[in-house]
Each structure stands twice: as C-alpha cells, then as structure tokens.
Fold this protein.
Amino acid sequence: MSVLPTVAEPMGSVPAAPGRSSLLARIWRDRNGRIGLTVIVLLAVIAVLGALGVLPHDPIAQHPAARLQGPSSRYWFGTDQFGRDIAARAAVGIWTSLRVAVVSVAAAAVIGSVLGISAGFFGGWVDQIVSRFIDILFAFPAILLALAVVSALGNGWQNTAIAIAVVYTPIFTRVSRGPTLTVGGAEYIKAQRVLGTPLPRILLRHVLPNVSAPIVVQVTLALSWAILTESALSFLGLGTRPPTPSLGLMVSDARNTVATAWWTLTFPALAIVIAVITLNLLGDGLRSALDPRRDSRP
Amino acid sequence: MPDRPTSGEIAIDVRDVVKHYRTPGRGEVQALDRVSVSVERGQVLGVVGESGCGKSTLARLLTRLERPDSGSVEILGRRIDLAKRGELRELRRGIQLVFQDPYASLDPRQRIGAALAEVLSVHRLPSGDGRVGELLETVGLPPSTAGRYPHQLSGGQRQRIGIARALAVQPQILVLDEPVSALDVSVRAEIINLLVRLRDELGLTFVFISHDLGVVRHLADRIAVMYLGKIVEYGPWDVVSDTPGHPYTRALQTAVPIADPGLDAPPTELVVTGEVPDAADPPSGCRFHPRCPLAEDRCRSVEPLMLPASGRHRLACHVVQSEAATADGTNG
C-alpha cells in the first residue's frame, strides 16, 4: 500500500479569524439599518416617555378652552377637538401601537415558527395538518380575520394583539416551513443524527439558527404591518378603547376636523408612516447583517 | 504488500440485507439486494461501484440513518438496525460516518470549535479547549481553527473537520462515504494519507466507499465491488485491484488512469459501454449482462452466485467461473 506523494498544503494557512462583530454592529454597518436603528430607538424613547406620563401635557385631560389650536411653542403639534395636546397623544399612541405590534408579532413568530419548523422537518401528517390549517387562515383577508377575532373577543389592546397574532401566524409558518424543508434534508443535519445528537437539540441548535434569517426579517416587516393593522382596527373602533390614545384612533377622530385643522390628521398619520418605514429599513439592515457569509470572508 | 495482521474479531457483519426505496413515478427501486459482507476489526473494506449501485445506501444502513427492509446489520456484535434509543447512542460511539461533501456536512452557523465541543458534550465526554485542540491536531489542523466558521476553510480543511468530528466520540469504526470525491486531486492525496495514518495509529476499522478503484486500493485490505445493489466480486485488495475476475471489475480497472503510460496496459483490459440500467427495473439473470462483453445466453436468464475463485476471493460470473472450472479440469 503506497503512501501518496502530497502537494504541500500550508497547514497553518487557516485564515486569520476576523472578530465576528455583534448583530447591532453589523446592522449599523448597513446604511438602511443605521437609519432604521436610530429612528426606532428614538420612537421607543418617545413611546416610553409618553407611557410614563412625563410629558408636559396630559394626553387625556380635556381643555375646552384650547380646542383645535394650531402648532405653537406651547402645543408643538397643536390640539384636537377636545383641547388635548396632539404631541402628548401621539407619544402615547406610539406606545400603544408598538405594544400591540410587539406582543402580537412575538406571539405570531413563536407559534408560527414552531408550526412551520415542525411541518417542514417532520413532513408527513404533521405537515398535512399544519399546512391545511394555515391554508384556511390564509383564505381570509387579513383585516376581515382580525375583525372577526376582535368582534368575538371584544376590544381592548390584549384582544387586538391576539387578533393580529392570529392573522400573522400563518405568515411565519410559511416563512419557516420552506427553509426547514431544505435544511432538514441537509447533510449537516444527517451528520448530527449519526453523531447521536438528541432531536430537540438538532431542532434548536441546528435547524432553527439556519432558518432564522428569513424569520427575523419577517419579524420587522410584520411589526410594521401590525402597526398598520392596529391603526386600522382602532380607526374602525375595534382596537384601542378611547380615551386611551392610539394613532389609529387619532386619525379616525381627525376625519371631522381635518378640513379646518390639518394638524389633527397630519401628525398621527406621519407617526404611523415613520414607524412603518423605520421598521422596513431595520428589516433591510437585519437581512444583510444576518448573512453569515457577508463579513469575515477569507 | 503482505496482509496486515488482523484480530479475527468481526467488527461489522451485514447479512442478507435488502433495501427498497419507493420513488414517485419509478415505482420501487431496489438499492440493495441480499447483500452480505463482514469486516474484521482493524481492517479496511473498500466498496467500489458506479453511482446508483447502492454503496451509499450501505453506508446509511451501517450508521442507522436508515433501516434495512430485511436482513441484519451487526456492529461490534450488536444489532444496530434493532437498537433502541439508549443503545443506539452507545453504538454510535462505536461507528461514525464521514460524509462525501465537506461543504454540506458542516453546520454553516456553527464555529468549528463549538461543533466539536457539542459532539463531546452530547456523549458526556470530557470537552474543553484542550480536547478540541487535540482533535484538530489529530487531523493536522492548528488549534486556532476552532474559532473559524466552515465557509472560512478550504474543502480539504473542511473534510479534515468532518473526520475530526467523527473521531470525537473515539469510534472503532469509521464509514467513509466517498470522502475524497468532492476534493481537488492534490488535496485528495493528503486526506488519503491522513486516513492511512489514522488507520495505523488508532487501529481503526474502515469502510471506505468510492467509485474509484484507484483510490480504494491505496488503503483497503479487502475490496467489495458492487453493481446494481449486489456485490459481484469480493477479495483481498491486491487480487481485486490487480487481477480481477469479474468483467465489471476489469472494466473499472481499465478506467483507472495509469501513472506510467510506458507500462503495458493490463492484460485483462475490458471496455464496457452504456449506462447503469434503471435500478427500478433491473435486468434479468446477471444484472451486468446488457453491458458485459462476455455475456452468454445463460447470463440473461440465470442469476450467478457468489462462489469462491481462490482463497478469500469470491465473484459472481458464469463465464469466469466455468473458465476456471475448465482450467482446473485440464490441470487435474
């Protein structure tokens, strides 16, 4: 048995390890991610300030004497038809919207991904049941489904969150099932089976990280849709209960006053637009930050 | 080279294994048809054949990625095909698999060090940087490799990681499914030399699967040649690779490039044409007859049996067997 001559492969030539930077740092390196990250932090600060009630004006107290005043140094964004400060209400509205969006999307992402990964990994009857169930949910227009859930449960932010979670769960199931089909058949998963790695560990440590990129990106997109849906439900009177401010409610209230007082519509609507765009930019930044091959190529 | 000493102990015993796959559109494909083979401890069995002959299926059955439809697979004296969870994990410490494609067999999101440490912790073996470094050293990589991701390594380096990962559980048997086919020729030689070293230093038992007889002969003690789900020739490496009997093996041998073209071509040269037939509808009689230059009438109807040709050398071919019988008759 001969030993083959070898071409000397420089054994020590493993490329120098580039310090793999944190996720935030990698988002920051992306221009869209940088904008998204900055604005979302700003919005979060405003929302928290609003929620804590440390703003100069009370968002709920009515001041009949100060009805429908335009933006000024005293009322930055003006007042509404009850003399309430729109800036304070918008800040609390951002809090309400973000709270519903975060809670509903977190629930949808966890439940949807568990369903999707199970369906994709195990296939067979698990896949059949999950996929048919998802098909049924998908058959309803999103807003109708949310309306149906809210009418069944009654309004209030928790119920709005549940409704939105129901609407977005199938999206997460779809998004996670597809990549799981590919990853589940990959050799590195077979390798783990041969190595004797327990199934829960394979799913958590090897399947999930490899299908997480589209899920995480979907989270930011779903957050922006959830803000829109929450606003739409509030606009229709099925979301946040007055007098708690919500961006959707403010837009709804402004219908009657916008002709004479443009600020009543403009500022809450602008807040919605900014939140949605910001989350989309952040999603963009995340997408590039999560690609393992993006940085640290030899 | 003389036979390497063997313990005589049986490490792998595969008996009458049958494996079918159901594929949509093609019906039932017979990947393995009553295959029996055994490997002694410390020996290297080379398995050779074209793609689709069932050699990868054999690897999957040996490592219990799949179970046979019938027959038995015994690893270190225990039935791996029947093992339940706890026993199976124990058996997996005895037999490990190295995959063909080093690009696909490593988790792209796991650092090398973490991947090796995970194997150790799953099997409750002492882990820590020291052991991971040792494993890397065993396969000829610097300890700093532990901090890399798979995409930062070359194909050869990745295959070394694949081998290190399999070695982490300190197995006695390593199944190597085309371990060098995806690599550049220059890197191939290094990996084969590494395997030769591991075989000699650790006394490992190998099942080395390849489509290339030229690669297998570098480290195999015994070679089994497979065609369409059956073993058609089996014997000591030098006999099978230098003076093969079965026309299919002779054709494979012809396909091995000759290092020194000045040498005469082997006298046994045979050329085979055509593709491997559809395994869903294997030919009657001898499965090789449609492509065999020696085929006779009986080859089309009667399936040849594996019969001893000389010593431990066995093959399944009517023509060669009767030629041998005639020669014996004349001599006697």
In short: Chain B touches chain A through 53 residues (CB under 8 Å). The radius of gyration of chain B is 21 Å. Chain B has a mean pLDDT of 85. The longest strand of chain B covers residues 10-23.
